[in-house]
Amino acid sequence: MRIEATAKIIWHYRSEERAKAIAQALEVDNASLPEGLKKSLNVVTRWEDGDVITKVKYSGEIETLIKALDDLVFSIKIAEDVT
């Protein structure tokens, strides 16, 4: 099924320093998206007041979006473990 979707995901941390480190780690991961996926998926992550905010815009098959969001959550978990 083809869909158009936008999402805003906010992770709350109590530390500006930790939020910054996690957001920067995610941005590096976002930059390495495969070329074919970059055309249909736009992911931007930033930090603000101890929060990590990720905005996602997507156009394509729902299964691909689900996989991309799963990868995002996995990347957050790894960044949390490292920080």
Automatic annotation (TrEMBL):
Top-level taxon of the source organism: Archaea
Official protein name in the record:
KEOPS complex subunit
Organism of derivation: Thermococcus onnurineus (strain NA1)
